[in-house]
Amino acid sequence: MTKKEYNLFKSAQKTAKENNLTITKDWNNSNILFDFTLLNDMKITDFEKNCIINDALKHVCASNKEQFYIHEIDNFTVCEGIAYYTCHKVYNVSGKHLYNIMQLNNIKHKHGERKTVYEQYYNVTETVKNNGYYVPSYDYEIA
Hints:
By secondary structure, the chain is α/β, with parallel strands linked by helices. The protein has helices spanning 12-19, 46-59; strands at 22-25, 31-35, 66-74, 77-92, 97-113, 122-129, 140-142. The mean pLDDT is 84.
């Protein structure tokens, strides 16, 4: 298994721009960068991808790496699932924490449909795993 390589910079904004990452802030006002490239391998609608992304930007952080989500698209369609993230902490040479990169590594997604509101949902499940999934035993350091 190989380590995911990012072009790292001291600025979280520059790192996000160079690596096509989404940036947000957590409750402590520190920067979190999200890597959602695993969603590109999924055969789901853009609306469902946006639901996953928006929910992760609100709830996922270094101390909460699992995301449970459920969204009712309309009366006849629903999506739900669980996503797992790996946190890559980025430090400078002096040991100051700069920002975190949250990489989406594993997702189990269900898409449910029904013909009438009186029926149960017919579920289609899609599971996507990152073949290079690992829990890092080290952090990134910027020289």
